[in-house]
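Feature request, filed as a ticket because there's no other form

It would be nice if the structure record came with a short human-readable summary line next to the tokens. Right now we just get the raw output. Example of a typical job, pasted below so the devs can see what we mean:
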Amino acid sequence: VQNYGLSSCPGSGNRTPRIAANSLPTIGNGAFTLGVDNALPGTIAVCGIALAPSAIVIDGCRVLLGLPFTTLPAVVTSAAGTATSPLPIPANPALDGVQLFAQYAVFDPNGPFLGEMALSDGLRLRLGN
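Raw output as currently delivered:
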């Protein structure tokens, strides 16, 4: 697990969301989650997952996920501006060594991305034991 890029895309109160993993993404870790903190409280956050990184700048924000990407189910941030997204890692040995890249988009009326979002930094995950 490694952070791999800043988005420079703050929202309300100059809060820039930060992404983190709760543990190592080992094969068969059904309790693995990704989390976001420093986000706007009481709003929707969506974590995107891709097989490749990117550094495309849109609306002055660095989108750190390559195409195509998928999203985990939306979560609501707590009063402290945190949220957790489950990402269970299947017990499939064929996944050993697979890299995933993740970034949160947080809905924020003062976020510059697409006029209503703040973006987190990026996270690189290497699945394995």
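Something like this underneath would help us a lot:
The radius of gyration is 14 Å.
Residues 17 and 38 are 5 Å apart (CA to CA).
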